[in-house]
Amino acid sequence: MAHGSDSNDSSYAKSPSPASSRQGSSDNIKKVMRREKNRIAAQKSRMRQTQKADSLHLESENLEKENAALRKEVKRLTEEAKYLSSVLTTHEPLCTGLAPQTTHDLLYSPHHHGSSAFHHQHSIAVSHYQH
Question: Which of 7, 61, 67, 90 is 20 to 30 A removed from 21 (C-alpha atoms)?
Fold first, then answer.
């Protein structure tokens, strides 16, 4: 039997021809390049994901601060409304100029349109909430 014709000869199967060797080398280079490109893309993706998470965290902190400030303002305004309501309730019995009237009378009455006598006569000290 000839050495090259033996079908069980493993040396023949392992040694590729020069053309297939160049093809394998080219495939290997492409594989390495593809892996490197994929590694860079994954790295960029992770970096974008981290930046987005950081951005969302900052936005969340800012919204929490804004929410706290708004809650504080609502509390202050609620207290002011209660105070002014109590001042009005206390003043109403003393005020002879505020007899029950219709909405039309309130809107079109000269009494409520800048009458300086009204303002001087009915001045109420509300210094507690003046800014």
Answer: 7
